[in-house]
Amino acid sequence: AQGRFLHSALAALSPAALVELVESQGVPTKIEETGKIFPSSDKATDVLGAFLSRLQASGCPLALDEPLLDLKPSSAGFALQTSKRTLAASRVIVTVGGKSYPGCGTRGDGYAWARQLGHTLVPLRPALVPLISPAPWIAELRGITLPHVRLRVIDPSPPGAAPLAPTAAASPPPQALDERAGALLFAHFGLTGPAVLDISRAVTGHPRPDSLLLECDFLPDLRAADLESQLQKQAASGGKRPLASVLPDELPRRLREALLVQARLSPDSRLADLSRPARAALVALLKKSLVPLSGSRGYEKAEVTAGGVSLSEVDSRTLQSKLIPGLYWAGEVLDLDGPIGGYNFQAAFSTGWLAGSSV
Fold first, then answer.
1. Percentage of the chain exceeding pLDDT 90
2. How far from chain centre, in Å, is Cα 317?
3. Are 40 and 46 in contact (CB under 8 A)?
4. pLDDT digits 0-9 by tens, 1-10
5. Is residue 302 within 8 Å of 101, Cβ to Cβ?
6. Helix (H) and strand (E) counts in the chain
7. For the whole model, what pTM was predicted?
8. Is residue 289 helix, strand or coil?
9. Cα–Cα distance for residue pair 91/323, rounded to 1 Å
10. Taking Cα atoms as reference points, which of 257, 261, 147, 156 lies closest to residue 210?
11. 159: Cβ–Cβ under 8 A, 6 or more apart, which residues?
12. Is the confidence at residue 40, as pLDDT, over 60?
């Protein structure tokens, strides 16, 4: 539904057109290996400066340190009460963002106005947000980055199911609420990084996020059967090396040692001494470690707010409210959110462009 809603906005300002617009303002860009586009200087302030320069050239006044306190219909169209004055306008575009990173001024004011004006709000929740884990071994690995993992959010206790141990693999595996792959970073509070941010929406949207587990496949490019076969061969050929040095080198040593502790194995244990069930349990920890969650870091650290003004009440061709003529909604205040990688920026720029072109 969100993708279909954005068709007109993306037609009005495509990703290529946005890059061209930024470069036309004197900000060269670069394409990184991931396909993401950044200013060549790696400075976000250069992009901000370009937009401010364009705004100044348009002749539109910029009023800072003057928050909007109220927005209501009037005989002239709309009355806008700021901290300094009352303004009248025949048309209004609301682009005040969501609730994420309130230090930037995005405190969710637009949602109150939307509700006051009769719009329906899709329930709000943080998205693209780091996740908190109470597991001590996760905090002990803080600072370690893994460039490629596969994550699954699972509910260990769906109706009729027995609860799972926090670090044991399930058989058969429970159905995933979401699955993502990418980089992961261990932190003092839990987990972050692109893969974690991407999958966080499934956690914050759950009625009991503290009941969920994050299943981590630390070796997504190696099948469990192949890993088991490798360990069997090493054990058959002697397996006298310590376990910590036998596990795949692509995993940092601290992580290997932590996983062995979770498997109740000493890093100095010998592979040849492991029983078959112990070896299978070790493979399961490498491929399906289950990390308990206690929630997210909330709006303070969320890059995006999920939910917002219902798209069914906004004309996607113009961004005008279907309820109140002359009122336009654009950007994150709408029920629009996407994965990490610039999609949310593009949605904000494109909907803003379309709304501005429509008034």
1. 77
2. 27
3. no
4. 788 999 999 9
5. yes
6. 12, 16
7. 0.89
8. strand
9. 14
10. 156
11. none
12. yes
